Fold:
Amino acid sequence: MSIISSPLPDAERKVTGAVLQDTLVDLLDLSLVAKQAHWNIYGPRFRSIHQQLDEVVIVARDYADQVAERAAALGISPDGRAGTIAAGSGLPGFESGWIADDAAVEALVRAFLALIDRVRARIETTGQSDPVTQDLLIGLTAELEKQSWMFQAENRS
Structure:
């Protein structure tokens, strides 16, 4: 039951809701991965990558908020609880403990590539169900691809 009326028919609302929830979980996990790396990074490029990781956290949290609010606007209750994130994220795992700057960059590149693939598939899914959500996902993908490029450029000779 939803207390917010949706402008979408039930079938489209269900498809769009699943896409938004999955995207929310992945973005919240990305923010946690970036923060974990931020706290544990070491190496000669510590400061620059430490700051770059905070940019990722800001982007991920901003888009997570937009995604959650889009879901709520459609009458879908967003779920960003820790257990939901742990059970549903499609991002690669991130090890605990200290991490060398090169390894942190590679881990973020892997996370971005996985998330970009997942969001691009969701763009296709929402093409018929909700073009407004599709537009949000297109903007998100552009930002993720920009962040991915910046991290990939860190470890390339």
Q: What stands out?
A: The CA atoms of residues 126 and 134 lie 5 Å apart. DSSP finds five helices and two strands in the chain. The longest strand covers residues 41-42. Strands lie at 41-42, 99-100.
